């Protein structure tokens, strides 16, 4: 019922359905045949069902320990806990490609279900584009990375999973991150459909924005979760390494953030149309090519999947069709799109334009830094690497004006603003920011952390004061405040929350710039001090775990003689995989993380010493907390009535008549 | 506000931002690009102590020893490319694949005394890297069956046949 | 904004993507042929004369050789560092035997017991015209070898003109070595 052959067949069926989903609605739309176009949602849902069945089959193979399936034999084992048997399905290349296409199909299904208010022709075209992309990736899955391949003879037990990957954080990281990446396929499909149709208007902006916001929320969560994972699992004390894999997720996040903002201008003012269409195409293109570059081995990464240049050629061809095709269409059709909205540079639109320019400049810097080494090697034969110092030096100065503008932007009215009036709203926030400057000078060192910290406080204060002013705090009765709170659009709440979240993240980053660490080699009973705390190695003992041997330390931390906590960092030796992992011990009070890692044991008897790494990381949890607040803000604005209902009926009717 | 002036404003803003991004990139490139250097190149023209480089070469056999600097364990070893050797000091835990007689890449800076202080040490072949020929041979000799999972990692290759005799 | 200017501006993204795409395609095709390796370390000795050395031979395989003998050759020679304990070296032997039909290959056994190395070389037929033993790896250090197997193409007169750090096979020979031989 749920065997690998059934799964393989379902995958092939889904691929055929996706091809039909691509061809029929497009053909129907060009012939203005409503029945053919109307097939698109049914095809999308049936493709989703087929693919879901296929994925379920793979999960059942893993849960049922069917080691005749190579993917299961290579990545699972009888002794593995059930949770990791399931999540291990997407912990490898083949399974992750299948998950990727499943999410793409789910996006198609979501457009079919939630997009009932769209004009039929537009919805048909959007689903057709999604079907086309989906078909390409399913072919990739079937032809070069088949997850259902059988082995003969079947081994008795599987190889097990990389112990580093047996972690709840990592188990749910890929689905969330992929939903973020793949979610941008919907704005992409909307953009391509609009180019085919040759028309972008306010209604289009209103339809496309919720999808972009939803994908953005998932991508934000995915990046934050990934960063948190590398912080507590890799045990290097770092949270962001400017590694190609991380950059591959940051680049679409930057353009996606720009897209979420520029779509507002399309929706409200019918401006920036060509630009928004380009951003929608670029964001998805960056999502796709980031994955491609890492999987093909062109970019070196610490979190590597198996590299295979042959596979890379297939994906490159796929990318050439998807990205090249959409950009060619853009070059051909975009010049006919015209903007109507006029606005002054000092206005909400003006600030959103500035936000877009700055985000795209940062994005350009990150792309340049990521692509420079392979191109330098290809063209000049010089081997170089571009690392954290480059990215820090080149991107941080660009985020300063971005933060400054974030505070001002939401306070500006549309079309034209009077500076004096706007600033009168921001006095309170500027005052808090001034206190923030003093606070930052007191607690932080280094010019960039101080500037960023002060601006982050400014962003939080300005966003909060903007909401407070709008609900009438201070000049309306409590009853009036309540009324206004209820009437204030959820998207305004969401925007303020997202901006506050960004401020919290930046504060966390500033705090982490002041992190202290020490690598020490000490005997049991010895004490070392770090950042005002005394760290004492009380004891080290060995124990045997389910499938590993471990060495565990008891590390006491005292502040002014008072015991703060006892950390238990571990080093685990997985004998079957001949791999060691370090289990970091972290104590947090949400202001400062105390972070301990145990390394090697040297010597014997009385002379035994242990290598320990001790970290004191101020404000570390704020980085991920801020990411979460940002995503909640996005989700909040998704719940806005206007977003859900979509365009006013009048516009929809007009589109229907035109179509 | 006419269409023309608005466009002028946007163009000015774009130029300002893209220009400063380009300037920052170039400036950061000129001071933060990390070049690979071989020990002989380091000896011939030592880079300034504030400039990080990647030192690539082979760990000289028998050169690895540990020193203790005020309770901090430091690994010291020589990296050579044949013409010259550079003493490398690294505080921290060496990667699993680090072995004498094999190549490493060390990221760090050259000190005034000619020594090299590494902040990061990488062994050349990481565990995911396996040339196709090796994979084929492992299959042929029955050491590894690709149907049953990942290849054994590089550090165990030479223990899988006759024990390395020299060194 | 007039239509031509718009047309040019909207064509910029596809041109940029096209340039990047061609670059990636070059990288991928070079990666498959082994010419482009993002993880490679450059050997600094390419283009320089070979270092001086004198090495003994392996038991039953004749005398070793010295840099002077290598320099005195009138044909280009492929110098190959190998060891019996190295699995990639086992893997490259059939390839080396194929290449040895086209040009002489001189082998240097790196950090290996002479009897093990001799047995290894003779097991399925030696591809080497001459073999020497670098018992303690000193010569390999002079050549800048970062691990075995590695191969160097030495022109008559003793200049290193090419270096490869992967196991050799006829494809690499055709793509990398033969064009360089033609240039000599």
Task: Explain the overall architecture.
- The complex is a heterotrimer of chains A (659), B (167) and C (184).
- Chain A is an alpha+beta fold.
- Chain A contains 21 helices and 11 strands.
- Chain A has helices spanning 4-31, 34-63, 70-75, 82-87, 93-114, 120-144, 168-183, 185-197, 202-232, 244-269, 273-296, 309-333, 348-380, 388-409, 419-443, 447-470, 478-487, 490-512, 620-638, 641-645, 649-658, and strands spanning 384-385, 516-522, 527-530, 533-544, 549-559, 562-567, 570-574, 579-583, 585-588, 592-602, 609-618.
- In chain A, strands 3, 4, 5, 6, 7 and 8 form a 6-stranded antiparallel β-sheet that branches. A 4-stranded antiparallel β-sheet of chain A has the order 2-11-10-9.
- Chain A is globular and about 85 Å long.
- Chain B has 167 residues and is α+β, with helices and mostly antiparallel strands.
- Chain B is built from 4 helices and 7 strands, in the order αβαββββββαα.
- Chain B has a 5-stranded mixed barrel.
- Chain B starts with a helix and ends in a 7-residue tail after the last helix.
- Chain C has 184 residues and is an alpha/beta fold.
- Chain C has 2 domains: 1-37; 67-182, Glutaredoxin.
- Helix content of chain C is 42%, strand content 16%.
- Chain C is built from 6 helices and 5 strands.
- Chain C has a 5-stranded mixed β-sheet.
- In chain C, helix 3 (87-100) links the parallel strand 1 and strand 2 (105-110).
- Chains in contact: A-B, A-C, B-C.
- At the A-B interface, helix 3, helix 13, strand 1, helix 14 and strand 2 of A face helix 1 and strand 1 of B.
């Amino acid at each position: 019922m749920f065997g690998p052959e059934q799964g393989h067949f379902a995958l092939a069926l889904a691929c055929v359905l996706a091809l039909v989903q691509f061809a029929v609605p497009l053909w129907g739309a060009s012939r203005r045949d409503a029945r053919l176009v109307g097939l698109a949602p049914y095809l999308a849902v049936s493709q989703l069902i087929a693919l879901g069945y296929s994925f379920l089959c793979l999960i059942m193979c893993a849960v049922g320990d069917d080691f005749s399936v190579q993917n299961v034999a290579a990545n699972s084992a009888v002794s593995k806990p059930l949770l990791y048997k399931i999540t291990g399905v997407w912990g490898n290349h083949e399974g992750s490609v299948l998950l990727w296409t499943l999410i793409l199909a789910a996006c198609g299904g979501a457009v079919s279900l939630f997009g009932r208010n769209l004009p039929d022709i537009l919805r048909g075209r959007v689903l057709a584009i999604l079907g086309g992309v989906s078909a390409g990736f399913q072919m990739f899955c079937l032809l070069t990375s088949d997850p259902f391949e059988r082995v003969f003879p079947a081994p008795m037990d599987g190889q097990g999973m990389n112990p580093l990957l047996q972690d709840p954080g990592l188990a749910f990281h890929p689905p969330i991150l992929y939903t973020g990446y793949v979610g941008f396929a919907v704005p992409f499909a909307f953009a391509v459909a609009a180019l085919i149709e040759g028309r972008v208007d306010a209604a289009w902006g209103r339809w496309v924005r919720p999808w972009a916001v939803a994908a953005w929320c998932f991508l934000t969560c995915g990046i934050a979760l990934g960063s948190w994972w590398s912080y507590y699992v890799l045990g290097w004390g770092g949270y962001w390494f400017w590694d190609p894999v991380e950059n591959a997720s940051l680049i679409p996040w930057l353009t996606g953030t720009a897209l979420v903002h520029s779509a507002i201008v399309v929706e409200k003012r019918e401006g920036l149309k060509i630009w928004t269409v380009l951003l929608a195409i670029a964001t998805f293109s960056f999502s796709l090519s980031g994955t491609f570059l890492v999987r093909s081995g062109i970019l070196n990464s610490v979190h590597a999947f198996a590299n295979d240049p042959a596979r890379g050629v297939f994906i490159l061809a796929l990318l050439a069709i998807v990205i090249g095709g959409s950009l060619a269409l853009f070059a051909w059709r975009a010049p006919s799109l015209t903007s109507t909205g006029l606005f002054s540079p000092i206005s909400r639109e003006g600030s959103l334009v500035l936000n877009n320019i700055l985000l795209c400049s940062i994005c350009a810097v990150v792309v340049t830094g990521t692509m420079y080494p392979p191109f330098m090697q290809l063209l000049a034969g010089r081997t170089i690497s571009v690392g954290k110092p480059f990215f820090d030096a080149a991107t941080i100065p660009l985020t300063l004006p971005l933060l400054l503008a974030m505070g001002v932007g939401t306070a500006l009215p549309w079309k034209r603003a009077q500076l004096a009036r706007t600033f009168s709203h921001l006095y309170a926030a500027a005052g808090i920011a001034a206190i923030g400057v003093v606070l930052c000078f007191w607690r932080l060192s280094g010019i960039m952390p101080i500037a960023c910290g002060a601006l982050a406080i400014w962003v939080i204060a300005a966003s909060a004061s903007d909401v407070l002013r709008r609900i009438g705090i201070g000049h309306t009765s409590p009853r009036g405040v309540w009324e206004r709170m209820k009437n204030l659009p959820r998207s305004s709440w969401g925007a303020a929350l997202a901006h506050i979240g960004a401020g919290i993240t930046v504060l966390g980053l500033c705090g982490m710039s002041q992190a202290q660490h020490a690598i020490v080699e000490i005997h049991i009973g010895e004490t070392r001090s770090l950042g005002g705390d005394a760290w004492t190695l009380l004891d080290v003992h060995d124990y045997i775990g389910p499938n590993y041997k471990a060495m565990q330390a008891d590390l006491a931390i005292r502040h002014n003689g008072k015991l703060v906590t006892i950390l238990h960092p571990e080093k685990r030796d997985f004998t079957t995989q001949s791999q060691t992992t370090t289990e970091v011990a972290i104590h947090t009070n949400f202001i400062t993380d105390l972070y301990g890692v145990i390394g090697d044991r040297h010597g014997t008897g009385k002379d035994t010493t242990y290598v320990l790494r001790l970290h004191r990381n101020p404000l570390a949890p704020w980085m991920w907390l801020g990411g979460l607040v940002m995503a909640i803000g996005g989700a909040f604005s998704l719940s806005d009535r206007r977003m859900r209902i979509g365009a006013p009926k009048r516009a929809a009717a007009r589109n229907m008549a035109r179509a | 506000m006419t269409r023309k002036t608005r466009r002028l404003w946007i163009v000015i803003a774009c130029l300002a931002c893209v220009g400063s991004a380009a300037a920052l990139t170039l400036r950061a490139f000129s001071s933060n690009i990390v070049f690979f250097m071989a020990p002989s190149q380091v000896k011939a023209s030592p880079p300034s102590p504030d400039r990080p480089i990647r030192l690539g070469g082979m760990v000289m056999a028998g050169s690895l020893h540990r020193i203790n600097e005020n309770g901090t364990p430091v690994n010291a070893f020589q990296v050579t490319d044949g013409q010259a050797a550079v003493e490398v000091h690294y505080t921290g835990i060496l990667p699993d694949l680090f072995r004498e007689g094999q190549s490493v890449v060390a990221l760090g800076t050259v000190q005034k005394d000619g020594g090299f202080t590494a902040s990061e040490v990488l062994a050349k072949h990481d565990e995911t890297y396996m040339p196709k020929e090796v994979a084929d041979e492992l299959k042929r000799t029955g050491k590894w069956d690709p149907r049953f999972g990942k290849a054994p990692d590089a550090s165990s290759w030479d223990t899988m046949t006759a024990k390395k005799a020299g060194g | 904004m007039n239509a031509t200017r718009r047309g040019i501006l909207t064509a910029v993204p596809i041109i940029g993507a096209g340039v990047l795409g061609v670059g990636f395609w070059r990288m991928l095709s070079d990666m498959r042929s082994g010419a482009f390796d993002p993880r490679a370390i450059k050997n600094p000795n390419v283009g320089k004369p070979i270092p001086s050395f004198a090495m003994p031979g392996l038991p039953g395989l004749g005398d070793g050789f010295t840099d002077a003998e290598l320099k005195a050759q009138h044909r280009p020679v492929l110098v190959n560092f190998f060891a019996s304990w190295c699995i990639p070296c086992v893997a490259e032997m059939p390839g080396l035997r194929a290449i040895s039909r086209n040009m002489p290959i001189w082998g240097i056994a790196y950090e290996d017991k002479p009897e093990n190395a001799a047995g290894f070389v003779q097991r399925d037929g030696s591809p080497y015209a001459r073999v020497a033993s670098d018992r303690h790896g000193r010569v390999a250090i002079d050549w800048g070898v970062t691990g075995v197997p590695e191969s160097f193409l030495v022109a008559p007169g003793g200049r290193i003109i090419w270096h490869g750090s992967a196991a050799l096979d006829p494809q690499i020979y055709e793509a990398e070595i033969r064009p360089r031989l033609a240039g000599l």
